[in-house]
Every structure is written in structure tokens, then in C-alpha cells.
Design a protein that fits this description.
Blueprint lengths: L1 H15 L5 H22 L52
Amino acid sequence: MKRTGLFLLSAVAVFGCQRDDAPLRKEVAELKAGQEKILDAIKNMPKAGPAAARPQRPQRPRPDANSVYSVNINGAPFKGAKDAKVTVVEAFEFA
């Protein structure tokens, strides 16, 4: 009697735990179809040309090495004599 009851209880548990996985299968199929579309779009993308085929950026204007420039350094920190005949200014950016 115990075995029959245990068997019936097991049978009910097994058949009761089954579920309908059709919606899940449909969702997986839709995901696969979307993935195939993405892969096809990647394959059909135009290829990028070499860097030489791209237009060159215009060069920045360079300062004239033969010119003398005046830079206002009043109030700036300095090293050396205040009455020096030549002042070398070092400028830079942190960028």
C-alpha cells in the first residue's frame, strides 16, 4: 500500500511539474532570427579604406623661427636676475 501511494505521488509530481515551454522556444527562435539579421548587416557593411585614402587634416600654422616674439611675463614666477638681457619663456599645456 505504501509503495502504491508513493508511486502515485511520484507520478503526480512528475506530470504536474511539466510545463509548456512553447513560448520559451518561440522567444529563442526570435532571438536567433534577430542575431542572424545583425550578422548579415555586419557582413554587408562597406569596408573602410586605408588611412591614405582619407582626406588629410590641414596643418596648423607654425610660428616663424626667424621672428622675435614679445611675451608679457609681469607677475609670473621666474629664476635668475631681474635685469637679464635675455629671457627664455617656457610654455606648455597640461592637455
